[in-house]
Design brief:
five-stranded antiparallel β-sheet, 195 residues, alpha+beta, globular
Length: 195
């Protein structure tokens, strides 16, 4: 058996293909399964503006982001100088990771099933964070909600933005997709997960 044949399909991807896709196809009234909204990519972004004073904060942020996503983080640099922020063009001010394929599905599964329930006083995700094209952005205040991050090795607690990019054309389609995948939105019943 080759490595490609032995590779396990992520749990959430299998659930999307077997349960969510047929259900959304009938709910939204699409004839072709390729019209049904699906996940395109997930972008995880972490701002590290205070690394201008201390360089090791940037390294720690890159390491935390790599541990959380399972992929090496890309350094983002300032596009232009802003004197009020003591920022010069080309200075490193953040880190980002773009997840696609199986890594994307595995990260989303960990986010929904493990990380979000660990948020203190969590009452559900806002339904207003859609951008008008079916993409959804979550702001997380600390990286410690992910169990992969070792609390003793954290140099500074910092937040991150997680953007889920979908092929949905409207916010309602995107909301239906994410709710079917198990996103706990405020005021909506949580979709039942079959393990």
């Amino acid at each position: 058996m080759t490595a490609a044949q032995a590779r396990e399909i992520p749990r959430l991807k299998r659930r999307y293909r077997d349960e969510v896709l047929p259900r959304l196809r009938s709910e939204l009234g699409y004839g072709n399964p390729m019209q049904v909204p699906r996940l395109e990519k997930i972008v995880v972004n972490m701002g590290v503006g205070d690394s201008l004073k201390d360089g090791r904060l940037l390294d720690a942020a890159l390491e935390d982001l790599a541990v959380v996503t399972g992929q090496k983080a890309l350094l983002t640099k300032a596009r232009k100088s802003i004197a009020g922020f003591k920022l010069r063009e080309g200075m490193a001010i953040g880190a980002k990771v773009t997840l696609r394929g199986d890594r994307m599905w595995e990260f989303l599964d960990r986010l929904v099933s493990t990380a979000l329930p660990r948020i203190r006083d969590f009452r559900g995700l806002s339904q207003d964070a859609f951008d008008g094209h079916g993409n959804y952005t979550i702001g997380v205040t600390e990286q410690l909600i992910f169990p992969e991050v070792d609390y003793d090795k954290v140099v500074k607690v910092r937040g991150m933005d997680i953007t889920v990019v979908t092929t949905a054309r409207t916010d309602d389609e995107g909301r239906a997709l994410l709710q079917a995948l198990g996103f706990p939105f405020q005021g909506m019943p949580v979709a039942q997960t079959a393990s």
